[in-house]
Amino acid sequence: MRAFWLSLALLSTLALAQSHATGAEPEFRPALIGNGPKALVNMIDTQKLMARGQNDALIMFDGLVSRGNPLRYARSAKWHVYRGTPGSELLQQELLNKLGAAEFVPAIANHKPVDVVFHGTALFMVKDLKPHLRIYANQNHEDIKEGNDFIAPQLIIETADWQVSAFDLVLEKARAYGQNGAIQLLISVDAAGNQRDLKVMLEDPPGFGFGDAIRKTYAKAKYIPGFRNGRPVDSTFESTEYFRRWKY
Questions:
Q1: What angle do CA 146, 121, 10 make, to 5 degrees?
Q2: Residue among 176, 199, 179 at smallest CA distance from 187
Q3: Domain with CATH 3.30.2420.10 in the chain
Q4: 158-247 belongs to which homologous superfamily?
């Protein structure tokens, strides 16, 4: 676990140092948690969480990161926080309180800053009466279980067709019934940031066109590629997309 965090910090520090020294941005750099005083991992009060009774917990979250700062969804005051383990309510509330003020290392694509979707997982543990917090830049079960140095691909916002969820007829039934929905995705992206495959693993509820809508939305999507051990790689990652009434 410690090696994971040292690798992330080293990747961030080297990338920023290189940009400053040469005046040029790298071709790709994912948005990162970072390690400064306003980094999310440093803003969460683990001692307070433990004192309030938070036991071992895991929770996933995602949100927009633009030029190093998290942006709130268009009509929501909160990031998405979901798939928490039973008893993770205190951790969830702490995440929601801190995400809006946290600072991220910005994402770079084609040598320029870009807006991206950041997928993360917060893991809180109490061991020997001491709290421990790990925040991963992915939601892959096996990578989290093994503590791997993996940063999941990050969608470049402007490359997706968001007009599908707003106006496309594929969601006409969902709009008519005022139906919310959730889609569990498995997405494969190559080391150059090209989407190679998108599978809808779960569509809840079925029959409202959410799967078709997400396929059309992401048909031409580009990504910051996934990074393993500090290097861009072909990778497959898990992602959750929500359709809410106010989004379409």
A1: 70
A2: 199
A3: 158-247
A4: TonB (3.30.2420.10)
pTM: 0.84
The Cα-based distances of 153 to 75, 104, 185 in angstroms read 25, 16, 13
Residue whose structure tokens are 């779960």 = 202
- Taking CA atoms, 48 is separated from 2, 37, 131, in Å, by 22, 17, 9
Q: What gap in Å lies between CA 43 and CA 204, rounded to an integer?
A: 34
pLDDT tens profile 171-222: 899 989 999 999 999 999 999 999 999 999 999 999 999 999 999 999 999 9
* Phi, psi angles (nearest 5°) of residue 206: -75, 165
**b/e 130-145 (16+ beta carbons within 10 angstroms → b):** ebebbbbbbbbeebbe
